[in-house]
Amino acid sequence: MKTRAITGFFFIIVMVGAMLLGDAVFLGFFSFLSAWCLYEFYGIVSSEDRRPSKALGILTTVVLFSTTALYSLGIFEAKYILLCIPFLLAIYIQALYQKRDFPFNDIGFTILGILYVGFPFYCFTRLGYIGGSFNHFLPLGFMILLWTSDTGAYLAGRSLGKHKLFERISPKKTWEGFIGGIVLAVLVSLCLAHYFETIPQWQWIIVAMIIAVFGTLGDLVESMLKRSLNVKDSGHILPGHGGLLDRFDGLLIAGPLVYLFLFLVN
Description:
By secondary structure, the chain is mainly alpha-helical. The chain has ten helices and two strands.
């Protein structure tokens, strides 16, 4: 527990710093995080029957992030974001030369990694540009609400939890914890609305509810993935926590939905 707390403390400092130090650092840091999480995903799904192309999958995601970052920084035009398409199509072409018995297993899991990991991180970084120019309040608020939801769920589940939420996938999660996470996230969103005035209060409340509900479902989806592969952790880069993918599982489902909501209403 001590190792877990120390690791979490310093990791949060690094993440918050990356969001406060400007868009170049923000985009670079989360591009690295997305690539590493994708690397972990490919690592845990790889087997004799499944050999996703780690290089092309990660390269496609990095090209998407890089071209979008250069566009956001005013260096590239938006059309250059489409440069990721040839790398995506190369995943299919590469399989022709590998002489595998089930090539579409490899292709499918390579593309699944991009959609499951790379795309949600991409949506998360776009939160910083909802207003047009870069603003760290939305991505920072997102992470605060995600951490708050996890904390509320843990505290409520520990003290009140009796009814299992999804025992087949995660035996420790309860409905009481799930509701506690939503309540605490909504309460914190009211504070964020007071200090982070990028969006109105009602939007912060809805964002909090999306994060609390779908962040939990994202956690369950990753648990389902690991359980189906008989894997405990996605990696070992964070002492006491496992892999980076384990730390961002809630973002993978909640991130795209929050971005979609804010994009449509703003």
